[in-house]
Write a structure and sequence with these properties.
This is Cyclic-di-GMP-binding biofilm dispersal mediator protein. It comes from Alpinimonas psychrophila. Residues 7-184 form the Ketoreductase domain. The protein has helices at 19-28, 40-45, 62-72, 96-126, 149-169, 206-218; strands spanning 8-12, 32-37, 50-54, 78-81, 132-136, 175-179. With 232 residues, the chain is of the alpha/beta class. It has a single domain (8-229), classed as NAD(P)-binding Rossmann-like Domain (Rossmann fold), CATH 3.40.50. It has a 6-stranded parallel β-sheet with strand order 3-2-1-4-5-6, sandwiched between helices. Strand 2 (32-37), helix 2 and strand 3 form a beta-alpha-beta unit. Helix 1 (19-28) crosses helix 6, helix 3 packs parallel to helix 4 (96-126) and helix 4 (96-126) runs parallel beside helix 5 (149-169). The relative contact order is 0.16.
Length: 232
């Protein structure tokens, strides 16, 4: 079991439909929250007792700067990477701007965050804690979807990185896990940076997904595939 009470945990995308609920779940378990998002006002509106960092993760060097700022202020025991964007449309019609934005935020920045955080998380392990990194690739990492080619690629690439990093980082006592929930009604599909969402079946309730993700952290799970979110 991973003890969350008193542990200092960073949640990126903390004002999002899923990130905000994960932050609340972690807070309920006694975690010391460190939250990041683009808007300082939106972070304050969460009403959570937390350290807050407003940052545009698209900016060059932002991932490293965020980790530096967080670790300068204290130890780091865990990271939940919950930020991301979505784009829709045929693969042949995706613009370079959309391609760059989706791949940067959904894949490159999470990799940069993980890389930057390893020394601090290794120090947490040496101090006797159970450090972790959790990413949220979603179902498209395993089932790439027509009309969402770039989004699917960004998440599949992230999952591949996590799978390899998991084997490397366990040697220093850092647990890395990826969650791949089915379509969830976070509202992200209504805010694409390009295109229009295709018709989708009703998704899972975000609170159910957030609760399951935090349970995976507490229960020392090493992977949270799509079936783990479905009724057994």
């Amino acid at each position: 079991m991973t003890e969350l009470s008193g542990r200092r945990i960073l949640v990126t995308g903390a004002t999002g439909g899923l990130g905000s609920l994960i932050a609340r779940e972690l807070s309920a378990q006694g975690a010391q929250l460190v939250l990041s998002a683009r808007s300082a006002e939106s972070l304050q509106a969460l009403g959570l007792d937390a350290e807050m960092f407003s940052v545009d993760l698209l900016a060059a060097g932002a991932a490293q700067a965020l980790i530096d700022a967080v670790t300068d202020a204290g130890e780091l025991d865990g990271i939940v990477i919950a930020h991301g964007v979505v784009a829709f449309g045929p693969a042949a019609e995706i613009s370079d701007e959309t391609l760059t934005t989706v791949m940067t935020l959904n894949q490159t920045v999470p990799i940069q965050l993980i890389r930057a955080a390893v020394p601090a998380l290794a120090a947490s392990r040496q101090a006797g804690n159970e450090p972790f990194i959790l990413t949220i690739a979603g179902v498209v990492a395993d089932s790439p979807t027509a009309g969402m080619a770039v989004y699917s690629a960004s998440k599949a690439g992230l999952n591949a990185f996590v799978s390899a990093a998991q084997r490397e980082l366990r040697r220093v006592g850092i647990r890395v896990l990826d969650a791949r929930p089915p379509h969830t009604e976070t509202g992200l599909a209504t805010r694409p940076i390009a295109g229009t969402a295709p018709a989708m079946p009703t998704g899972l309730t975000p609170s159910i997904v957030a609760t399951r993700i935090v349970a995976a952290i507490v229960n020392d799970e090493k992977d949270v595939p799509t079936p783990a979110f479905l009724p057994q």
